Amino acid sequence: MKKWTRIFLIMILTVMAIGCIKGGTAQTESIDTNSVQTPAEIISDENEEDSKEETLTDAPKDVEEPANTADENTDNGEVETSEGSDDIDVDLTAISGILVYSEVYNMMSTPENYMGKKIKMEGIYTIYFNDSYSVRYDACIVQDATACCATGIEFELSDELKFPDDYPEEGDIITVEGIFDTYEEGSYTYCTLRNASLLNVKK
Question: Which domains does the chain show, CATH number per domain?
């Protein structure tokens, strides 16, 4: 009995050994020896990858073109009549509505502080006829922020313009500049912009 048991164990071990040999042989045959890299080839491949990364890193970046800062002309429906001068003493077109009204009020109440100064302002064109003196008065009217109060300054255009053909229509928004002055009529003193120029008209 022991003899047969020993023979049986030897046969099992022999079969297992043959199976391991075949498995090892199959595994060895499945390996492509051409695909096995030596340490030198691995180092060479790593150097190639580093070279590619450096090439990508050192590649020049796209240079952004400077933005075009040139002013673009737009058609906003305004009628340009003439260019304003640069030597403005009081530019009312550069401040907000409530400050414009306050500044014009100061001109009316303390005209001596503005005598001879060049004033630039924007407002509503209005006309007043004085039948007693047979005179037409042209004025630029400004309103306060709530549009409940209004005040203005007369102006006398220096250009030889024919009224009413060459003048704005009443109610147009105008920009005008001229030299601040006063005159007396009857028992009252009035403010005006002499030698004035009509710079802009908005319908």
Answer: 80-202 (2.40.50.140)
